[in-house]
Amino acid sequence: MGFQQGLSGLNASSQQLDVIGNNIANTGTVGFKSSQAQFADVYANSLNGASANAVGIGVRVVDIAQQFTQGNISSSTNPLDVAINGNGFFRMSTNGQVTYTRNGQFKLDKNGFLVNSQGAQLTGYAANNAGVLSTGSAVPININTADLAPNQTTTVNAVMNFNSTLNVPGTQLPVTTPPVITPTQFDPTNATTYNSSTSTTVYDSLGNSHVIQTYYVKVDPTKIPASTPPLVTPASAWTMYGTVDGNLFDTTGNLTTPPALPVPLAVLGFNNLGVQTGVYTTTGTSAAYSATSPNAAKLVVPVPSQAVTPINTAPLAIKFDFTNSTQYGSPYSVSTMRQDGFASGKLASFNTGKDGTIVGSYTNGQTKVLGQVVLAYFTNSNGLQSLGGNQWGETSASGQALVGAPTTGNLGTLTSSATENSNTDLTGDLVNMITAQRSYQANAQTIKTQDQILQTLVNLR
User: DSSP letter at 234?
Assistant: First the structure.
């Protein structure tokens, strides 16, 4: 027995206690990965190698191996917090230097970049103004907080049921070519001159809203104008009139005011089974279906001048699509009234999906993709270099980072408004600490025993 074994044991136990103490100290560190001290025995070699009955000369620490097991995921009140469930790492950039972390506690800096507490920028795929991702190289993610541009209405999808039991209102005059109707036959202010009506809000190119009110009047289908090419005469027909912001308008996109005659915008036809046979509009001396949209009316809707400061915007070319509309013996109803325009909006909030896609929600009810978080995967995570501050650096031992979108490969998924807890096993480390303490005491005892043996030899005479 020599002092060497005991000294090496004391040193190994001391390092083990350091590792355990570091694990315990980081129990509350988000994304922390605990470590484990790994040991190997030591033998002295001669020129001819160690003999079969050689006695070892102690122990040494061969590795402080981090344990990259999954930590528990806890919910957070910060919508910018993101947790990884899987093997990936967040890719961070600090003045071009790339590091990796499991700590997903982020915030917005003054320039709109997602950063951690050390100021490192989270990287991912950028999105353009249309919300289309550029999935080339990963760049620092910048959240565009500008207002969402308005979108002009181009299509209105209207699915309705017209009550087949209703009569033609008032005294119906023959519809001539072009259509002529007495001013008293249809009047938007007189509910007895039409059978049903509905309204929808549309938007011009500047995001200003306009209310289009459509009115439907049952007519004698035999009195509808001739068509080029010829149309099959429907069993039932309804003429459609319209106002925009309270003003009547015609098929050419002009506002009509009294004493001008109201002009039907379109005619909706149905067969004797209540199925729509088509929608057509009258132009000049003929009427025809749309070649591409037989159940839609293409209308030119004028935009009235604004009250205080006139704003010149072009008339709205809107397709009113009545596909799936019916005429049954039940009350008039509107099951769908959907249009594709919207006003401008301000960014109200954003969240991160499982695949890392950052989606912004705006005050106008719209959403837009603002970017996508990427993750990095390493073949040998234990080869990463610990840099402190919850950061790791790539090394030759770890292998090159494999970067991609979450949910692909071995990267894992993301959880928004959540953080990954430290994976320290507090109970296990407390037990390991007792074991390491006992080992330290035992190694100290071997040194004490060796000292007593030497003392005995010194006292021999």
Answer: P
β-bridge pairing 413-416 and 82-85: antiparallel
The token duo for 21 is 């103490």
Rounded to whole angstroms, the Cα distance separating 11 from 5 reads 10
Is there a single domain that holds both residue 288 and residue 435? no
The candidate with the shortest Cα–Cα distance to 59, out of 38, 42, 37, is 42
The CATH number covering residue 236 comes to 2.60.98.20
Q: What's the average model confidence in pLDDT over 208-235?
A: 77
pTM of the complete model beyond 0.85: no
Q: Is the pLDDT of residue 344 over 90?
A: yes
DSSP label at residue 137: E
Instruction: Specify whether 299 is located in the same domain as 416.
Output: no
- Bridge-partner residues for 127, per DSSP? 133
Asked if 19 and 33 sit in the same domain, the reply is yes
Residues 6+ apart with CB under 8 A from 412: 84, 85, 86, 87, 88, 375, 406
How many residues are there in the chain?
461
Print the domain residue range for 317. 155-339
CA gap 416, 356 in Å, rounded = 9
Is the distance from CB of 326 to CB of 274 less than 8 angstroms?
Answer: yes
The tens digit of pLDDT for each residue in 381-395 reads 999 999 999 999 999
**Cα gap 89→95, rounded to integer Å:** 19
> Among residues 412, 431, 349, 334, which one has the least CA distance to residue 84?
412
Residue 274 pLDDT exceeds 90: yes
Strands 133-140 and 155-163: unpaired
Number of domains within the chain: 3
Neighbours of 109 (CB within 10 A): 12
Read off the tokens for 194.
């039409």
Q: Could you tell me whether strands 367-373 and 375-377 are parallel, antiparallel, or unpaired per DSSP bridges?
A: unpaired
**Residue 307 to residues 7, 245, 303, 310, 311, Cα–Cα distance (Å):** 92, 12, 12, 7, 9
CA distance 209 to 316: 12
Given 339, 371, 391, which residue is the final one in a domain?
A: 339
CA gap 211, 245 in Å, rounded: 5
Amino acid at residue number 18: D
Give the DSSP letter string of 164-227: TTPPPPS-PPP--SS----TTT--TT-GGG-SEEEEEEEE-TT--EEEEEEEEEEE-GGGSPP-
